[in-house]
Write a structure and sequence with these properties.
Number of strands: 6
Shape: globular
Order of helices and strands: HEEEEEEH
CATH architecture: Beta Barrel
Strand order of the largest sheet: 2-3-4-6-5
Largest sheet: 5 strands, mixed, barrel
Helix content: 10-25%
Distance between the termini: 27 Å
CATH superfamily: Nucleic acid-binding proteins
Length: 115
Amino acid sequence: MSESDFEKPYKDKPFVDVNIAEIQKPGKYRIVGKIAEITDLAILLDDGYEQITIILPENISVDLKEGLQIRALGYVELHPEKQMRGSFIQNFNGVDLEVYKQINELEQSLRRVNT
Protein backbone atom coordinates (compact mmCIF):
# COMPACT_ATOMS: atom_id res chain seq x y z
CA MET A 1 0.00 0.00 0.00
CA SER A 2 1.32 3.39 -0.89
CA GLU A 3 1.30 6.39 1.41
CA SER A 4 -1.38 8.05 -0.71
CA ASP A 5 -3.74 5.12 -0.01
CA PHE A 6 -3.75 6.12 3.64
CA GLU A 7 -4.70 9.69 2.78
CA LYS A 8 -7.88 8.63 0.98
CA PRO A 9 -10.96 8.83 3.19
CA TYR A 10 -12.49 5.46 4.07
CA LYS A 11 -15.93 5.15 2.52
CA ASP A 12 -18.15 2.32 3.61
CA LYS A 13 -21.13 1.72 1.35
CA PRO A 14 -24.29 3.15 2.93
CA PHE A 15 -27.41 1.18 3.73
CA VAL A 16 -29.92 1.55 0.87
CA ASP A 17 -33.63 2.21 1.53
CA VAL A 18 -35.77 -0.37 -0.27
CA ASN A 19 -38.98 -2.33 -0.18
CA ILE A 20 -38.26 -5.99 0.50
CA ALA A 21 -39.56 -6.99 -2.94
CA GLU A 22 -36.94 -4.73 -4.62
CA ILE A 23 -34.00 -6.65 -3.13
CA GLN A 24 -32.39 -8.63 -5.95
CA LYS A 25 -28.82 -9.02 -4.71
CA PRO A 26 -27.02 -9.35 -1.38
CA GLY A 27 -26.08 -6.08 0.28
CA LYS A 28 -26.67 -3.51 3.01
CA TYR A 29 -30.26 -2.30 3.22
CA ARG A 30 -32.68 -0.24 5.34
CA ILE A 31 -36.21 -1.59 5.55
CA VAL A 32 -39.21 -0.02 7.27
CA GLY A 33 -42.13 -2.21 8.23
CA LYS A 34 -44.24 -3.70 10.98
CA ILE A 35 -43.27 -6.67 13.07
CA ALA A 36 -45.53 -9.57 12.08
CA GLU A 37 -43.98 -12.22 14.32
CA ILE A 38 -41.31 -12.50 17.02
CA THR A 39 -39.15 -15.46 18.02
CA ASP A 40 -36.20 -15.62 20.42
CA LEU A 41 -33.55 -14.76 17.82
CA ALA A 42 -35.48 -13.23 14.93
CA ILE A 43 -38.48 -11.22 13.81
CA LEU A 44 -40.63 -11.39 10.71
CA LEU A 45 -40.95 -7.90 9.21
CA ASP A 46 -43.77 -6.95 6.82
CA ASP A 47 -43.31 -3.81 4.72
CA GLY A 48 -46.68 -4.06 2.98
CA TYR A 49 -45.15 -5.64 -0.13
CA GLU A 50 -43.34 -8.70 1.21
CA GLN A 51 -42.01 -10.21 4.43
CA ILE A 52 -38.44 -10.91 5.51
CA THR A 53 -36.87 -12.68 8.47
CA ILE A 54 -34.46 -10.47 10.39
CA ILE A 55 -31.88 -12.15 12.61
CA LEU A 56 -31.67 -9.82 15.60
CA PRO A 57 -28.41 -8.22 16.76
CA GLU A 58 -27.15 -9.30 20.19
CA ASN A 59 -27.66 -5.97 21.95
CA ILE A 60 -31.03 -4.49 21.12
CA SER A 61 -32.47 -1.50 22.96
CA VAL A 62 -35.92 -1.46 21.33
CA ASP A 63 -38.80 -3.18 23.14
CA LEU A 64 -40.08 -5.38 20.33
CA LYS A 65 -43.74 -6.34 20.00
CA GLU A 66 -45.98 -7.44 17.16
CA GLY A 67 -47.40 -4.51 15.20
CA LEU A 68 -44.54 -2.15 16.13
CA GLN A 69 -43.26 -0.13 13.15
CA ILE A 70 -39.47 -0.31 12.95
CA ARG A 71 -36.57 0.45 10.66
CA ALA A 72 -34.09 -2.39 10.35
CA LEU A 73 -30.59 -1.88 8.98
CA GLY A 74 -28.47 -4.87 8.07
CA TYR A 75 -26.97 -7.18 5.48
CA VAL A 76 -29.43 -9.14 3.33
CA GLU A 77 -28.51 -12.60 2.08
CA LEU A 78 -30.52 -14.35 -0.63
CA HIS A 79 -29.55 -17.99 -0.14
CA PRO A 80 -30.95 -20.29 1.10
CA GLU A 81 -33.71 -17.69 1.51
CA LYS A 82 -33.97 -13.91 1.62
CA GLN A 83 -33.10 -12.84 5.18
CA MET A 84 -31.36 -9.97 6.94
CA ARG A 85 -28.65 -10.09 9.57
CA GLY A 86 -29.75 -7.05 11.54
CA SER A 87 -27.15 -4.51 12.61
CA PHE A 88 -29.54 -1.88 14.03
CA ILE A 89 -33.23 -1.86 14.90
CA GLN A 90 -34.94 1.51 15.40
CA ASN A 91 -38.43 2.23 16.70
CA PHE A 92 -40.23 4.02 13.83
CA ASN A 93 -43.72 4.13 15.35
CA GLY A 94 -43.97 7.94 15.32
CA VAL A 95 -42.52 8.47 11.85
CA ASP A 96 -44.74 9.77 9.04
CA LEU A 97 -43.92 7.26 6.28
CA GLU A 98 -45.09 9.51 3.46
CA VAL A 99 -42.68 12.27 4.50
CA TYR A 100 -39.94 9.67 5.06
CA LYS A 101 -40.41 8.31 1.50
CA GLN A 102 -40.36 11.84 0.03
CA ILE A 103 -37.07 12.61 1.81
CA ASN A 104 -35.53 9.35 0.56
CA GLU A 105 -36.59 10.06 -3.02
CA LEU A 106 -35.06 13.54 -2.80
CA GLU A 107 -31.79 12.14 -1.39
CA GLN A 108 -31.61 9.55 -4.18
CA SER A 109 -32.21 12.16 -6.88
CA LEU A 110 -29.46 14.36 -5.36
CA ARG A 111 -27.03 11.40 -5.34
CA ARG A 112 -27.75 10.74 -9.03
CA VAL A 113 -27.07 14.38 -9.90
CA ASN A 114 -23.79 14.40 -7.97
CA THR A 115 -22.39 11.21 -9.53
